[in-house]
Amino acid sequence: MGAFIILFAVIFGGGLLYFLFNKRNDSVLKLSLSFSGAYLLGITVTHLIPEVYSSNSGHIGVFILAGFIFQILLEFFSEGIEHGHIHVHKKHSGVFPFTMMFSLCVHSFFEGIPMADVAQRQSLMMGIAMHHVPVAFALMSMLLQSGVNRKWALFSLFLFAVMSPIGAFTGIYLGDWLQNGLFEKVMAVVIGIFLHISTTILFESDSDHRFNIIKLIIILGGAGLSLMV
Question: 167 in helix, strand or coil?
């Protein structure tokens, strides 16, 4: 329970940082996302994938692919804010983006499900927090710069921050309820989501269409940390 409260507080606090640093710094945002993307990819490849395949549940690969495609569908509505894309809608100033928020919350909910695994909980919580803090900052930046009321923006931040802990509690419940490999199939869908998010973050081109040395070091650092947990 305490770990989930900490996760919520870290994500919510990440969004509140907008009020301290309300000038967008795209380079810092992208570098922080690159670190979290490399960490998530490392955790997925070294821990989550071997675990679901060791369960001998059938058609795991199909469900991983389904999760990958599901995330593509989510990003059609979220406009890619999960990996740092900020689209300020000046033409629709003050209009709340309900579809974007719904998609982002679904994404956050599914990312929390693997934390039902006690053995992986700490490493996953670190990865989700590192990924969601810059996303929370991007969310507040997009909403407030689009003219959305501050109270609505803070409520949206609250919803986003609470969805991963809710997903974790749901995963704990599903782990007790789903039998005969069904929970592993749910985990496989989440793995597909992780793979899409992490690889998209890592391999999106910068404005000059090149990987710079700082980004490479950041990526190696995130991947290296995933091997240590």
Answer: helix
